[in-house]
Amino acid sequence: GLRIGLAAARGLALAANLPCLGVTTLDAVAAGVATAERNAGTVLVVLETKRDDVYAQLFDSDLNQLNLPSAVVPERLNGAFPPGPLTVAGNAAPRVAAALERAGTSVSLSTAPGLPDAAVVARIAAQHWRPGQILSPPSPLYLRPPAVTRSLD
Q1: Which of 3, 47, 89, 115 is the most exposed place for a label (fewest CB within 10 A)?
Q2: Predicted model pTM
Q3: pLDDT tens, position by position, 66-81
Q4: Cα separation of 123 and 139, whole Å?
Q5: Distance between terminal CA atoms of the chain?
Q6: Contacts by residues 69-78 (CB-CB < 8 Å, ≥ 24 positions apart)
């Protein structure tokens, strides 16, 4: 679905002679976290993968990325962030917060929606685009190898 969606967006932008800029779901969810929650410390955005792991990325109070996005099991997240208050956001936040609390980490759950809002995505894109800027086309961001591989037999 991701490749098809990106191809459709790129095709529409090309046909309309409009720029097309990629925004990750992790960035969009982080941007939906209220300023007061962000200012409390580090924001950990976690998204469901429908597997044992989650997609995760850390952000500071100004929404700067503190690490690269990754696919990780929640138990491995403990201690992977700077000291201080931690706010957990995203549709996997309750599951990850429970795992972190079992490991002794104090967290707070964000009140932000667990999935991105289109208005937030548009705002991020508008902040990053400049007139006359040459944009490289957005491409999928894969955080784990394919589950299915082709046999060479």
Answers
A1: 3
A2: 0.86
A3: 999 999 999 888 878 8
A4: 19
A5: 28
A6: 69/24, 69/26, 69/141, 69/143, 70/143, 71/143, 71/144, 74/46, 74/99, 74/100, 75/99, 75/103, 77/44, 77/46, 78/103, 78/104, 78/105
CA atoms of 76 and 29, how far apart (whole Å):
21
Question: Which position has the token pair 């548009």?
Answer: 122
3-state secondary structure the chain: CHHHHHHHHHHHHHHCCCCCCCCCHHHHHHHCCCHHHHHCCEEEEEEECCCCCEEEEEECCCCCECCCCEEECHHHHCCCCCCCCEEEECCCHHHHHHHHHHCCCCCEECCCCCCCCHHHHHHHHHHHCCCCCCCCCCCCCCCCCCCCCCCCC
Q: Tell me the pairing of strands 54-59 and 42-48.
A: antiparallel
Report phi then psi at 23, rounded to 5. -130, 125
Summarize pLDDT for 126-141 with one digit per residue, the tens: 888 888 777 777 887 8
